[in-house]
Each structure stands twice: as structure tokens, then as C-alpha cells.
Design brief:
Length: 480
């Protein structure tokens, strides 16, 4: 027996052929598959009392106990795991390179129809055709969409962990299960010497007929499937770097149970002044520089706390960061990036900030060039970092979810209404909101705005326009 793996897991779903696969794994000398070891409703098999001496109650109290038994058993042992099995074990299994992963897949329509027929007939296994029960599936479009999204979500989770940990799995499709050479290839992957001379075919395919005869409302199924975007043709590609939760940027009120999750180039200064006013405090009294441990403590201490963030129209935000970080030449500006934009990308930006000759026409050309450059930058096509000041807000919010999502996502143009709702939730009076300052710029966005500017911004921030529901900009920064 090779020491390549300590155990194995078959990552599958109901009606994918996992029983047949298990039967053939068990036909290999030195290999034992113990059914659905972590099914929440039974242990191994519906009528089983234990696996390797570990009962279901013992497994519930300590899942590691069963894993240790599987690892320590003679030969190479494993089990089948579906997406809805005990979630306490899956992260450790996927991250463990000493655990072999076999990923079994099947056409999701076939597996769904098979599942519906099994539900209708009550027959989940078949060993003799004379015992076969007849039945048809009733296709439910909404149920099928939920089914396929669940399967894809689990498959993506598995794939990502394997990728980031540098592992590989043995992928096998339902149709491959009838190929003894593929099964023997799986044995080679597992590192066992045994091979199958032929397949164990005690289990029979329950519903060999075409889908058209297995589905009672086949026409309705065809219509429902035709509306699915099978190849993700409408998906907006996203090549931006993933963001972490940026916990050190979070700002908590001096006393109130309220925390602000800022998005750069938004209205952070005005919001922080407003938060200080909640407790009649100075801005310096706000709590900052969190790490995850102190933040968890803050959440425990501040019962009934609320967290929020504020999103801004993409064009307002892009213009704000352009004026403050690129066009400006003082403290806080990105001088090296400005030089690179001028020299390498030929953007018509003044070398040392806006001078007397810099008018609305010059500003429009410079800002339009910046928007066009942003499209490539956000798509990972430039050598310059994707700065948080111009990163997509939807990507930044997704980063928040690494720790926790905000309770409220407000819009800058409706911020007073949003903050008023927060005050009601935490039982505080609503302070006056300071005026959100316009960027220090010789030309306002309203003076240069036109359809070309809007189109360039939408090309750069397609995902934000779609995910956050923004339409064309107007002078109030609202969706028209």
C-alpha cells in the first residue's frame, strides 16, 4: 500500500452514480468506502449503526473522532461527501493534501430528473430490473435553478481550495463510471496496486430512457432551460484583484454602537464628522486602527451595533479621485502614478497640477483619458496598482464579506435618509450632516459632463453600474 494518501473523499451529489462508484472502489483490494459518513440524518447508510465502531451520536459530538478512525483503519479508507453533509469537516478535508479527492459529476439536468423520479417512486437503488418502479419527473424551473446554483457553488468552493493549495483531484463523470480503464486509473491515482478485471455491476441504471419520456412536462422543461445562460454570455468579466476586509480602515463612534466601513474617494470626512457629533465628541475621539481581534471584542461589547457603508455614483467618485490624487500635486497626491500616466500612457495631464492655462476643455480631455485608462487598469491590463480610491465599489464590498457584510449600504445622494434610519435603529437623535465637500478642482464635473464622459465611465465601471443599480449621472450625482 502506498503512503501517498491517508484517506480519500468522493465529492459527489445525489443521483450522480456515487453508489456505483463506491461499489467499484470497494471491489479494489485494500480500499474501503464507508458510504455517506457525514450525512446529517444517518451514518454511512440509512440502516447502519456505526462506522468503524463510531456511532452517529459520537460523530455528532466529535466529527474528528470518525475522521481519525477512517485515517487509521487498515488499507485506504474513505467516504462519500455531498454539499449538504456535515460542514464542520469539509474545510479540513479540502485543505489536507494527504486526503485524496475524487470529484464525481453528472449532467445536472439528468441528476435532477433522476432525483425527482426517485422521490416520486421511492426507489433510490436498483439491483434487478424486475424490481424497477415506473415513474416520471415533474420539472420545476425555479427548483432546478436553485439545484444547479447549489451544485455550482459547492464545485467552485472545491476548485478554489485545490487551486490555492496546489492540489489536484481525480475528476470522473457519470458516463466514465462504465469504463473499467477509468476506474483503474482512479486506483492508480489513489496509489493502490489493485486493479479491477471488470466492473461490479450489481447496481443497475434505474432510468435508461431518454429525458423526453422521463419528464411529464418535457415541453415546459425545454422552455425553462432555453432561458438559462448556459455559457455565461451575459456575465460581466471581472479581473480586478480580490480585496480583503480592510479592517484597519473601519471607524467606530466614540460611544454609540455604530461602525462605518469607508469606501475610498467617497464622503468619508463628512460621515466621520457626523459620527463624532452623535456623541458630541471630536473627530479624534472616533475609534480607528482595528484588527480582527479588537473588532470582535467591540462587537461583543456593543450589543445591538450597526455597521454601514456609503456608495457613490461611479462618475462622481472617479472625478473625485482624479482631482484629488492625479491632477493635484500637493500632499496626498500620487505624483509617481501621475508621471507614469503622462509618460507611458500619454495622458494629457499637467506635470505639476492645474495651472492658469488649465481650462474646462483641458480638464475634459484629461479626465476622459483617465477614464479610458481606468478601463484597462481595472481589467488587469496595466502595470499600475488598482488603488482602493478607484477600485470598483462592488469589489470592495465583496472584500468586506471576508469578515462581515455591512448592515446597511447607503447611497451618497440619499445619505441623510440612510443615516436617519441608522439613528432610529440605535436609538439616537439625528445630528446635522456636514456638507459633503467637492474636490479641490478648478473645473467641476457638471462643466464637462456629456455622453462621451458617461460612456467612458460606464465602460470602466460596468460592474458597479449593474450591481449597484446606477444610471447616468446628473448634477446631483443621482441615477437619471
Amino acid at each position: 500500500m502506498s503512503s501517498k494518501f491517508d484517506l480519500f473523499v468522493v465529492l459527489a451529489e445525489m443521483r450522480t452514480g456515487s453508489n456505483f462508484l463506491e461499489a467499484n472502489l470497494n471491489a479494489l483490494d485494500g480500499v474501503s468506502c464507508h458510504g455517506e459518513a457525514f450525512n446529517p440524518f444517518f451514518i454511512g447508510y440509512p440502516n447502519a449503526d456505526d462506522i468503524l465502531g463510531v456511532t452517529q451520536d459520537q460523530r455528532e459530538k466529535d466529527p474528528e473522532r470518525l475522521l481519525a478512525k477512517v485515517r487509521g483503519a487498515e488499507g485506504l479508507n474513505g467516504f462519500r461527501y455531498f454539499h449538504d453533509h456535515d460542514p464542520r469537516v469539509i474545510d479540513g478535508l479540502l485543505a489536507n493534501p494527504r486526503c485524496a479527492k475524487i470529484v464525481l459529476t453528472r449532467n445536472p439536468v439528468e441528476s435532477y430528473v433522476s432525483w425527482k423520479i426517485a422521490q416520486a417512486t421511492g426507489q433510490w437503488k436498483l439491483t434487478d430490473a424486475k424490481n424497477r418502479r415506473e415513474g416520471q419527473a415533474e420539472f420545476d424551473g425555479d427548483e432546478f435553478i436553485r439545484h444547479i446554483e447549489t451544485l455550482q457553488g459547492f464545485q467552485k468552493q472545491v476548485l478554489r481550495v485545490l487551486q490555492i493549495s496546489g492540489q489536484t483531484a481525480f475528476y470522473v463523470a457519470y458516463e466514465d463510471l462504465q469504463d473499467v480503464e477509468v476506474m483503474n486509473g482512479m486506483a492508480a491515482f489513489l496509489g493502490v496496486e489493485a486493479r479491477l478485471p471488470e466492473l461490479d455491476k450489481k447496481l443497475k441504471k434505474q432510468n435508461p430512457a431518454p429525458l423526453s419520456s422521463k419528464v411529464a412536462n418535457f415541453d415546459a422543461m425545454e422552455n425553462a432551460l432555453s432561458r438559462l445562460d448556459r455559457f455565461d454570455l451575459t456575465r460581466t468579466p471581472n479581473f480586478e484583484p480580490r480585496r480583503n476586509a480592510m479592517v484597519p480602515n473601519y471607524v467606530a463612534a466614540a460611544e454609540a454602537p455604530l461602525m462605518f466601513l469607508p469606501l475610498r474617494a467617497g464622503c468619508e470626512d463628512a460621515v466621520c464628522e457626523w459620527m463624532a457629533a452623535l456623541d458630541s465628541a471630536q473627530v479624534d475621539a472616533l475609534q480607528r486602527d482595528f484588527t480582527q481581534k479588537p473588532l470582535r471584542k467591540w462587537k461583543r461589547v456593543n450589543r445591538g451595533h450597526r455597521t454601514f457603508t456609503v456608495v457613490t455614483h461611479p462618475l462622481t467618485r472617479a472625478h473625485r479621485v482624479f482631482c484629488e490624487r492625479i491632477l493635484a500635486s500637493g500632499s496626498g497626491s500620487f505624483g509617481e502614478i501621475r508621471e507614469t500616466l503622462r509618460k507611458r500612457y500619454k495622458l494629457p495631464i499637467p506635470k505639476s497640477g492645474a495651472g492658469e492655462a488649465y481650462d474646462a476643455a483641458a480638464h475634459r480631455i484629461a479626465f476622459l483619458g483617465f477614464l479610458q485608462w481606468l478601463k484597462g487598469n481595472l481589467a488587469g491590463q496595466t502595470s499600475i496598482r488598482v488603488d482602493p480610491g478607484w477600485a470598483s465599489q462592488s469589489q470592495m464590498i465583496q472584500g468586506f464579506s471576508e469578515f462581515n457584510l455591512p448592515d446597511l449600504i447607503m447611497r451618497e445622494e440619499q445619505i441623510e435618509m440612510g443615516l436617519s434610519q441608522v439613528c432610529q435603529q440605535i436609538g439616537r437623535e439625528m445630528p446635522t450632516l456636514p456638507v459633503i465637500a467637492e474636490p479641490d478642482c478648478p473645473v467641476s464635473l457638471a462643466d464637462i459632463y456629456d455622453e462621451e464622459i458617461e460612456s467612458a465611465c460606464k465602460d470602466a465601471y460596468t460592474r458597479d453600474y449593474m450591481m449597484l443599480g446606477y444610471g447616468p449621472w446628473n448634477k446631483r450625482g443621482q441615477a437619471a
